[in-house]
Design a protein that fits this description.
The complex is a heterodimer of chains A (375) and B (247).
Chain A lengths: L2 H21 L17 H21 L1 H14 L22 H13 L9 H10 L15 H9 L11 H19 L2 H6 L5 H14 L7 H4 L5 H21 L10 E4 L2 E4 L6 E4 L2 E4 L5 E3 L4 E9 L3 E9 L2 E11 L6 E2 L4 E5 L10 E7 L2 E3 L6
Antiparallel strand pairs in A: 1-4, 2-3, 4-11, 5-10, 6-7, 6-9, 7-8, 8-10, 8-11, 11-12
Helix pairs in contact in A: 2-3, 5-11
Chain B lengths: L1 H64 L4 H12 L4 H28 L8 H4 L10 H32 L4 H37 L5 H19 L1 H10 L4
Helix pairs in contact in B: 1-2, 1-3, 1-5, 1-6, 1-7, 3-7, 5-6, 5-7
Classes of the chains: A alpha+beta (375), B mainly alpha (247).
């Protein structure tokens, strides 16, 4: 081989290398592409099922899915039962029961002369919520859905028929709830059983306990293992029942019978001089008076601002919170779990205040409620 | 006829595949942004306190210099600082989380919707890019992988519930075991058939972007969310995995 041939050979090799290098940037020939291999029909079917299921989960479980559903409804002119976009976020508490209903239930319970003890606050709350609401004395006419009757039947409680008295129905509910509490190992599960199929509830509790966490028996934990429809059926009843039960056993944050200097409701603001809603109750007490927790809960906020002065907020669960403002001193830290009647601070005159007092505020589902209803 | 059905199924798969990839990523993103609103609320509250302090001080100094009375100053400063209350901050935190989720989803939709079945071989996706010309090469695939994994768990949990609901006539124990096995299989299937292709598509897409266009800046915006998911997801993800399966 001559030197000229050798040079030509080298040039040719260099050209081939260049073409190969360029070729790396190109798409492979269709015959070599794995995507064009004939996929197995079984794998194709599996893929399709998988893809459809993921698309379905997207539609029912995310705000973007809700938007897509709304868009589809708008295009086809159909009404869609889609949740508001912001409801897909779990924080803060998801109390969905209407405030007006809670207030009505509290008023009915007062009218019925119900002085609930700590033991029967929950059954009493459930009875009031499931009753038809006639203020006809102590006995309320409790009505159960088919899911509730099935739940009671699962713990061998026969639901009295229409011929039975309202008292018998109420007693059956009390007995049923007690047995459900023992069967499912918790109060929240017992109330959930009235709205959710017992098998699904037992499964959800089992899964929740397996996955662990701080409180696997709480609705917040086990509802993760219920379907969306089941959650939607149980959440309002649980939130309302526990909100009401917590409310029943709340106490005043000041020992004894303190003087109320400003009640809940519209008033002329002492600083602004305009008509404004006073969102809580003001107790006229000297600086340094012990302030007690109205009910057990977790301290979610300890801080200070120019309006409320030193204040703290306690979350009692199920959408019920209490706020204690114008304190002179905090006695608890954020995140601390407090017991009912525990000392949480000293009253004062901090923030925008015209004199020493304690501003006590109760909120349900993020809205202020008259604390006197919980007296 | 069989061939026609097969071709139709292939076509349906090619249409659904990118949508499902996107759906998987969105499910994971939502799991992350669900925790983001709590963080956003705390940030907003602290910011509000800072602004309140500044506003009150400014009103006090300005009106004081003008010789306005104490009561009027108090009224003005009270009105200024009570414009935004806790309820508004809660609402704003949720809106922020929703916006962030939408933004992140919009930024990730393009690579996964451009995904062409299996035409991007792994070998090419992992070839050295020479020099990194686009930050998307780094952030987007990591983001898609994280969101895809979280999304796979969400899909598996949903499958577990649906299976139990369908099979509950078999009794709780049998239906529960079957649902657990089904959920595990679903998790594995989604991870291999969807999360990996989504990751691969994002990797290939990031490599192909040469210029510093809007996408370049887009990845930067999306990055914090994914870092957030990484920071908050491990414990709930681990708990969710414990809840899956027949044990």
């Amino acid at each position: 081989m001559s030197s000229k041939d050798g040079q030509q050979r080298k040039r040719f090799d260099a050209l081939v290398a260049e073409v190969r290098k360029l070729g790396r940037g190109l798409k492979p020939a269709p015959s070599a592409a794995s995507g064009n291999r004939r996929a197995s029909p079984r794998l194709l079917l599996l893929d399709l099922l998988l893809l459809l299921f993921v698309c379905y989960t997207l539609l029912v479980g995310t705000p973007i899915g809700a938007l897509a559903q709304q868009g589809f409804g708008w295009m086809t002119g159909r009404r869609t039962d889609v949740r508001p976009l912001l409801s897909y976020f779990s924080q803060p508490a998801k109390a969905k029961f209407k405030l007006a209903s809670l207030q009505a239930a509290l008023r009915r319970s007062k009218a019925a002369g119900r002085n609930a003890t700590d033991e029967d606050t929950l059954p009493a709350a459930v009875a009031f919520l499931l009753s038809e609401g006639r203020e006809e004395g102590i006995f309320l006419d409790v009505r159960l859905t088919s899911a509730g009757r099935k739940a009671l039947a699962s713990v061998a409680v026969v639901w009295p028929g229409e011929a039975a008295s309202a008292r018998q129905r109420e007693n059956a509910l009390y007995t049923g709830l007690e047995r459900l509490r023992k069967a499912f190992g918790g109060d929240e599960a017992a109330v959930a059983a009235l709205a959710v199929d017992p098998e699904s509830l037992a499964f959800a509790l089992e899964r929740s306990r397996t996955s662990g966490g701080a409180s696997p028996d709480s609705f917040a934990s086990f509802s993760h293992y219920l379907t969306h429809d089941q959650r939607r059926a149980a959440a309002p009843l649980i939130d309302a029942a526990f909100g009401l039960a917590i409310g029943y056993s709340m106490r005043w944050p000041i020992e004894g019978k303190p003087r109320i200097s400003s009640p809940f409701g519209f008033r002329f603001h002492p600083v602004l001089g305009t008509r404004k809603l006073h969102q809580g109750i003001d107790f006229a007490v000297p600086v340094g008076t012990p302030v007690l927790a109205a009910q057990a809960g977790r301290v979610t906020f300890v801080g200070e601002d120019r309006i409320n002065g030193r204040f703290l907020r306690i979350d009692h669960g199920h959408g019920l919170t209490t706020t204690y403002a114008h304190l002179s001193r905090h006695r608890v830290a954020r995140g601390e779990v407090v017991a009912r009647s525990q000392l949480i601070g000293d009253s004062g005159n901090s923030g925008r205040s015209t004199g020493p007092h304690l501003h006590y505020q109760v909120e349900y589902a993020g809205k202020p409620v008259d604390p006197a209803l919980f007296d | 006829m069989n061939n026609l059905v097969y071709m139709l199924a292939l076509r349906l798969r090619s249409i659904l595949f990118p949508v499902a990839l996107f759906g998987l990523v969105v499910l994971g993103l939502h799991a992350g942004s669900d925790r983001l609103d709590d963080i956003a609320f705390r940030l907003l509250h602290n910011l509000d306190r800072l602004v309140d302090g500044l506003a009150a001080k400014t009103i006090e100094v300005v009106l004081g210099a003008l010789g306005v009375g104490e009561r009027t100053i108090s009224r003005w400063s009270y009105a200024a600082i009570s414009v935004i209350d806790l309820e508004e901050k809660r609402w704003a935190a949720r809106v922020l989380a929703l916006m962030f989720e939408m933004l992140a989803a919009a930024l990730l939709i393009w690579p996964v919707l451009r995904h062409q079945s299996d035409r991007t071989p792994w070998r090419r996706a992992f070839e050295s890019p020479g020099r990194i010309r686009n930050i998307g090469v780094v952030f987007a695939p990591v983001a898609v992988a994280c969101a895809g994994m979280a999304g796979a768990v969400v899909v598996a949990e949903h499958a577990q519930l649906q299976l139990f609901w369908i099979l509950r006539f078999l009794g709780r124990s049998t239906a529960g075991t079957a649902a657990g096995v089904g959920a595990l299989l679903m998790l594995i299937a989604v991870l291999f058939r969807l999360t990996l292709p989504a990751f691969r598509a994002s990797l290939a897409f990031g490599r192909a972007r040469a210029s510093r266009g809007p996408w370049f800046y887009g990845w930067w915006l999306a990055a914090p969310l994914f870092i957030g998911i990484l920071a908050v997801a491990p414990q709930p993800l681990w708990r969710a995995l414990k809840g899956l399966g027949p044990w």
